[in-house]
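Hi R.,

As promised, here are both runs. First protein below:
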Amino acid sequence: MKVESINKLLEIHVEELDTWIKRPYKNNFFEIVYVEQGSGRQCINDHEFEYNEGNIFFLPPMDCHSFKIKEPSKFYFIRFTDHYFLQKDSLMDYKAWFDRVAYVIANYNKVPGDIISTDQDRQFIINNIKSIYKEYLLADAYSTSIITGVIASILNILARSIEKRYVDKANEVDSRFGEILRYINTNLLDNEKLRLNHLSEQFGISKSYFSEYFKKQAGVSLGDYILKSKLKIVETKVLHTDLSLKEIAWQLNFTDSSHLARSFKKVYGSTVKEFKQMGKLKCDL
């Protein structure tokens, strides 16, 4: 299976298709897809679902996907690697963005699809995708900076929509629980904010009761939830970055790479190396 890559930092294409030629392919770039017209079914990894006019998808690297086109379709494809956000003149700190949404990317990747939560957000993204395309064609001295800033806004709205999914679901169980999960997942890189004392004070729940309350709502202990949430970020970084295990362990406050490796093996049942290899091969299976 060929891995498709882009030599440029950013590519934008508008394509009108009756049939999908490359199916499936896997890539090493992020991709935002907007369906301006048409319908059919989209296949992402092991999932297949309908797509229609107005749908917007965000695909992390190494996802394999294809379209089964029912009605002639017009797509906007925005493709960019992580290097796009590492430009010296970039207005966006890619690392900060990636760290902030790594958890929601990991969760979204399990059940992909259109995740825009409001009509207002959808229209904002559509208008901005079209603006990006115009700037891409214009390609003057200001275009790169304008495009970078607009993509940053789009990605933040997508992240908010993904996050809203699991927060709303948790709030159905208890009105405070979704906000507790949001707080924990937003602060996974800050051990001080994850301590029992801090969480109990932050949400007005007594320290003696907080652990019991959390386990009752989540079905797992606070410690296990935090560990598994951190490992979801590990999963995302292993598949989508070139960071060493030592670097990932340091970023996520594990004692060392051996501690991270043992924790990963216990939860996933495979070594980090085996997991990364399986992720690269899944489109070929």
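And here is the second one, sequence first, then its structure tokens:
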Amino acid sequence: MASLPERFEKWFAAKGWRLRAHQAEMLDAAQEGADALLIAPTGAGKTLAGFLPSLVALAARPREGLHTLYVSPLKALGTDIARNLQIPVAEMGLSVSIETRSGDTPANRRARQKEMAPNILLTTPESLLLLLSQENSGVYFKGLACVVVDEIHALAGTKRGDQLALCLSRLRALSATRIVGLSATVAHPEAMRRFVGRKRGWYRPRRGRRPRSR
């Protein structure tokens, strides 16, 4: 099972935290380039688990351009997550840029993001569709390493979810990206798995175990 780099270990220790089993398993999935679905109740460290592999990767190899794309059904959620994500980035002194993009984003910021993408961009399915329709989308998303889809249970089986599934397919055609799904506890997790799953690999961390299908 994966362990944290020293900088992250110290940050966890300062918070009085220990790396949870499902967070370590999400790091394992990232190292293997596998898609992942994490189903966990509120307060289980689900969001940090989704972003931790990206922060570790960007800490080890700082770079320009888009590395991780976060998509949620609610723009307010993306704003809150971006604000919360800035805390570990600032406290660990990571060179990671984080921005949001939605219908409320000022035109000058959207124009700047088009020319110089942040490392982590938090957006909605509709704004993602607009980004993919841009002339330079092939270049913009070429280096994308991960897409985190939050509240996936609210998207699967809906028209917005169908739209997002097409966007994810397009992103996979443009880059070697992996998909991470985050969801609250649901009765039928297979529907979530099918939404973003592929043959390459699938992890669903749960209660410290790692069910896996290939």
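A quick note on the second one: The first helix runs from residue 6 to 15. Let me know what you think.

Best,
J.
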